[in-house]
Amino acid sequence: MSERWETTEEIAAANRRFAAAIPGWGAPAAYGIARLNRDRVDFARINIGDHPLPTLVLATVCGHRAESASYQLDVTDLGRAIELPTPAEACTAYDHPNLAAWRWLHAGLGEGGTALAVFVGDLSEPCDDRHAEALRELALAGRAADPKGMAG
After folding, report:
1. Cα–Cα distance, 98 to 31 (Å, whole number)
2. Which end is more exposed in the chain, N or C (fewer Cβ atoms within 10 Å of the end residue's Cβ)?
3. Per-residue model confidence as pLDDT tens digits over 11-67
4. Domain-located, residue 108
5. Are 150 and 43 a contacting pair, CB within 8 Å?
6. Is 150 contained in some domain?
7. What is the count of structural domains for the chain?
8. In a domain, 152, yes or no
9. Is the pTM of this model over 0.85?
10. 3-state secondary structure of 135
């Protein structure tokens, strides 16, 4: 790995670069990554209103801009999502739980497996996208049970 973001300021600068490269970017209220198992979605990681770098990376890989939506990721897409923020691991001020979850999911996908990147624009509005609505419901339940949310 040649590039390293060792400080929170370097990560903030990376956030700004990623956001500037996404026309019409609107940060989601919640986002997550999941494994698609037939009709069921198993979320490996949910974030509510925090961890901007991972959401920007997922949006970059998926082409997401704003609102609520879900996107299928194949093994290659998920590998790219893991590779893009890897320089941030040099910053020990953060634990990088999203990268850990993404790597775990990537290892279990196998050839032909499908993951989902899911974004919820506004937790107070139901989503037309069924995967985004599932995430919205989980986020609302998590927020009710834990005032800090599920982002941990």
Report:
1. 11
2. N
3. 999 999 999 999 999 999 999 999 987 778 889 999 998 889 999 999 999 999 999
4. yes
5. no
6. no
7. 1
8. no
9. yes
10. helix
* 3-class secondary-structure state, position 31: strand
Across the beta sheet with 40-48, what order do the strands follow?
Answer: 40-48, 30-37, 115-120, 69-73
Range of the domain at 118: 8-145
The answer as to whether 42 is a domain residue is yes
Tokens of residue 29, six digits: 């209220």
| Number of neighbouring beta carbons within 10 Å of residue 132 | 24
Over the stretch 70-95, which tens digit does the pLDDT of each residue have? 999 999 999 999 999 999 999 999 99
The CATH number of the domain where 65 resides is what?
A: 3.30.70.2010
Distance CA 47, CA 119 (A): 10
What does the angle CA 152 – CA 17 – CA 151 come to, to the nearest 5 degrees? Answer: 10
Kindly report the CA angle at 33 between 131 and 75, in degrees rounded to 5? 110
Q: Name 59's Cβ contacts closer than 8 Å, sequence gap at least 6.
A: 18, 22, 25, 65, 119
